[in-house]
Amino acid sequence: MMRKKVLLMGKSGGGKTSMRSIIFANYSAKDTRRLGATMDVEQSYVRFLGNLILNLWDCGGQEAFMECYFAAQKDNIFKNVEVLIYVFDVQSQDVDKDLHYYQSCLESILQHSSHAKIFCLIHKMDLVPEDLRDNLFNERQNMLMEISRPLQCVCFRTSIWDETLYKAWSQIVYQLVPNVKGLEKTLSNFADIIDADEILLFEKATFLVISHCTRKPHRDSRRFEKISDIIKQFKLSCSKLTAAFQSMEVRNSTFACFIELLTPNTYVMVVISDPSISSEVTLINIRNARKVFEKLEKDVSRN
Amino acid sequence: MIDSTSTISDTGGGQGQTSNKNINPFIRPRILLTGLRRSGKTSIQRVIFTKMQPSQTQFLESTSHLTLNQFSCGSFINFQVQELPGQLQIYASGLNSGNGGNNGQASSYDDDSMTSIIGGNYDLERLLKRCNAVVYIIDAQDDYSESITRLNTIIQKGRRINPRIRYEIFIHKVDQLSEETKIETQRDIHNQVRDRFSDPIGGMEPWSPISPMSNSSSPEILINFHLTSIYDHSIFEAFSKVIQKLIPEFSHLERLLNYLLSTSNIEQAFLFDVQTKISIATDSSPTDMQMYELCCDMIDLLINMSEIYGQPNEDGSQRTTDDDDDDDEDYFNDDSDHNQGHEWNIVTQNEEYDENNIQLNGSRKSSFVNSPLGTTPIANHQQTTLLETTSEPASAVFDSMSSSVIKLTGGRALYLKEINRHLALICILREEALTKQALIDYNVRQLKKSIIKLFRLNYQVSRRNVSSSHLVE
């Protein structure tokens, strides 16, 4: 078992708990309205890929708590951090104060877990008019990268109302997946064998894309997050019927796409554009690939 | 593409454009959509027919003109929605015609609504005479007494003019109400409407020309109530029910679906219009809202995934995999060629429309030819009458090979198959039944043929009748 500590910080009301609930607890964006403010630190353990456990520290962002994090609780909070996710509310009125807390946070990180990876999410992007988003994001990104030195940070623009949230979190968890390279290699082998256009690997619970192999160029670079979003939406509507999504096949005259359970912790999506390959053939191929991927997963957890 | 030309045509007629475009011989059920101002009429249409996000509807401006929307999605949904603006007073002109409709009163509304109403032909009697159903929207979050008064006026009138109208009352914007309040509101509105009815004087306005005598002999009035909201599927479900009652083939479709159920070990079957997610027919077993929602979401899933991976190939090497349903489009072509002379009751109506609309139609048509995906409805606020047409194929990615199978836990599965380019069949079945998927595929293919045949038959019948019969009388 591998445990990785993920810190989720940012100003109160910035949307930390909302995004956490959407990604890990199957909330719909609408449901997050019900969430109240987070008091102190809310810890949760999320089983991710079976052998990996994410220990999520959702740190309430009210000033009193913040001050406390950098003083009395400092050791406790900033020790052994693998990933720091800092959420900025794009509409925040007091940017200086936000940056001040961010800097204090970085100092503590540097002190206690200097190897941690840092992600900054410029959140609630949906509230910014579309034509201004690019500029605003670039501006903030440059500023944050400047401030973060000597540490490196990666910035994302996010909103719980579109697929950008999935993009950011996919990239974040990608950093945490053990043996990513091995996974990618196996995936590309598999794609060659079955002549697939594209294969995606999803984490089962979150439907975040953790690995992919693309053999045929695709015009839409945002498709992964879109697919996560689409499937997640459908899973939500299944849950209303107290049933859970199990597998799917969708086709038209130009493509066939299959989503099937691959290992106990992952789903695979196979896209094939040759309509002469019948569904059954592909499904059997996926079934056969299971053994390989299961072995791979076991090897990783043993090491 | 045939569908599109046909819808456009019926408003372009009578102005010299008739010659080769009036190829739509279908009886087109008409729905009059009305309600007080800000009750959500335009929002409903936008959400259902143009896929507007519900949250975006708050930015819609209020409608100030009578708008006419034509929908001929697929073979069965072929109807007209007339949206009567809420802020206009219902004006009983008493004169049904001869108002001299089209002498450009584009800007006159603000100064004198009365005259412009007469001038603009917002003549309730005439609208009622021609419609098959009235969808009346009541804002449940507002004080609805005024709304009910107006509804009663409409029903009073309708009963005299056109007793066969169905009244579908949408108690709208209920998303913010608790379950209890919803039921309470529905009961309250229901009672108020019924009460005024039994009392012939009650619902009458001083200016109403209705004589008390006309009430006594009227047949029973068909009124249905629906609780709706654009923020969930209830509006789609309610509209589906409205449409189902207006589709002449409904009982046949239901029988076909029942037959499919019994032969293929299927639990439930829905026939959906893909674009609007209106279910035009179901089997006769009771359906629950949640299943309906799941089917809607399945369509979303199919279309969204197809849009990512299933776009027609850019290099032109599109595979022509159309198999069994080539014919269903072709015959349409053949027939339409020698059908030019046909013009059903639309003709009379054409005279009312602004000349500008002809151009509108013309340009609409060419845009169709150029891009089959031009979904933006025409909206020219300069005109007194707005015309919008939605008749393009549901989606470029929804084609004859579109299908989907989704398995759920608990042994349930969903099965979707294309019927024609607008319609999809969705079946709910046990996973065990899918072990004989080939059999289901075969049966569905037969069903598809029957549905297309039914469509064709209806087409021929309505063609035959078209010259002699009128829709309303």
From TrEMBL, chain A:
The keyword Transcription regulation does not apply. InterPro entries: Gtr1_RagA (IPR006762), P-loop_NTPase (IPR027417), RagA/B (IPR039397). SUPFAM superfamilies: P-loop containing nucleoside triphosphate hydrolases. It is found in: Cytoplasm; Endomembrane system; Lysosome. GO terms for molecular function: GTP binding; GTPase activity. It catalyses: GTP + H2O = GDP + phosphate + H(+). Keywords: Cytoplasm, GTP-binding, Hydrolase, Isopeptide bond, Lysosome, Membrane, Nucleotide-binding, Ubl conjugation. Pfam families: Gtr1_RagA. One of its GO terms (cellular component) is endomembrane system. Gene3D superfamilies: 3.30.450.190, P-loop containing nucleotide triphosphate hydrolases (3.40.50.300). GO terms for biological process: cellular response to starvation; negative regulation of autophagy; positive regulation of TORC1 signaling. Transmembrane segments: none annotated. The keyword GTP-binding applies. CDD domains: RagA_like. PANTHER family: RAS-RELATED GTP BINDING RAG/GTR YEAST, RAS-RELATED GTP-BINDING PROTEIN. Belongs to the GTR/RAG GTP-binding protein family. This is Ras-related GTP-binding protein. It comes from Rotaria magnacalcarata. The lineage of its organism: Eukaryota, Metazoa, Spiralia, Gnathifera, Rotifera.
TrEMBL record, chain B:
One of its GO terms (molecular function) is GTPase activity. Residues 1-23, 310-341 are annotated as: Disordered. One of its GO terms (cellular component) is Gtr1-Gtr2 GTPase complex. Keywords: GTP-binding, Hydrolase, Membrane, Nucleotide-binding. It is found in: Endomembrane system. Residues 322-334 have a biased composition (Acidic residues). Signal peptide: none annotated. InterPro entries: Gtr1_RagA, P-loop_NTPase, RagC/D. One of its GO terms (biological process) is positive regulation of TORC1 signaling. Residues 1-10 have a biased composition (Polar residues). It catalyses: GTP + H2O = GDP + phosphate + H(+). Pfam families: Gtr1_RagA (PF04670). CDD domains: RagC_like. Belongs to the GTR/RAG GTP-binding protein family. This is Ras-related GTP-binding protein. It comes from Rotaria magnacalcarata.
